[in-house]
Amino acid sequence: MIYLSKGVVQPKSSIENLWLERGGKQFQLQGAEAAVWLKGRFGFMVAESEAEEQVVLRLANKGLTEMEKEADSIFKYRILTRCVCCPARQRGHMSSRLNEQERQIYTWMQKAGIHLSVAELVFLHEHQITADSGMFGVRNRQKLIETIYTKDNIQDNLLEHQMEKAECRDEVVEALMQLLKKKKILIV
Question: What b/e sequence results for 98-115 when a residue is b if at least 16 CB atoms lie within 10 Å of its CB, and e otherwise?
Fold first, then answer.
């Protein structure tokens, strides 16, 4: 079983008590739950025992993890489609440690004027729509939405299914995981 943790660690957390916020709710995790959540905080993790799988399931029931039975790249994409990826609050300027693809995705996430789904980010990358294309901000979000959604993909979850087959899917998933590891984004 592969999983990814969701939620934001709260400042009042300590070694004994991990406090998280997700969806406006506060959660307190201790012991095995805290350890398993922390393990999946910055990337996909594999539950290594049946006991750990049970903890992942409990956390999933609380909305604090997303999981799949298989660890293939398509399942990583599917996990991310059930998450909201958002830019973390940053102090200072953007790090030069980001490669061009990470920088493009991060810029879209920061400036689009809406929370972009993973499928939408894959679409933008697949169609080579760069982050400097004049579709930033609240005033331009309709233009962005009309660029992504057409009569061919507007139905429920159709874009997610189409982008599941995109050649660049794994590149975007990997770039998002790198942004997560570099603490540029949060998974909620």
Answer: beebbbbbbbbbbebbee
**Over the chain (188 residues), what is each successive 10-residue block's mean pLDDT?**
97 92 95 97 97 98 97 96 91 72 94 93 94 83 90 85 96 98 95
CB 9 within 8 A of CB 20: yes
Residues 6+ apart with CB under 8 A from 35: none
**What distances in angstroms separate CA 122 from CA 19, 68, 126, 160, one per listed residue?**
32, 20, 6, 9
Q: Report d(CA 33, CA 108) in Å as an integer.
A: 33
The SS3 assignment for 3 reads strand
Evaluate if pTM is beyond 0.85: yes
**Distances, alpha carbon 22 to alpha carbons 7, 18, 114, 136, in Å:** 5, 13, 19, 27
Q: What's the burial of 156, exposed, middle or buried (CB within 10 Å: 0-12/13-18/19+)?
A: exposed
What pLDDT, in 10s, does the model give residues 138-184?
Answer: 888 899 999 999 888 888 789 999 999 999 999 999 999 999 999 99
Q: Which two tokens stand for residue 35?
A: 């350890």
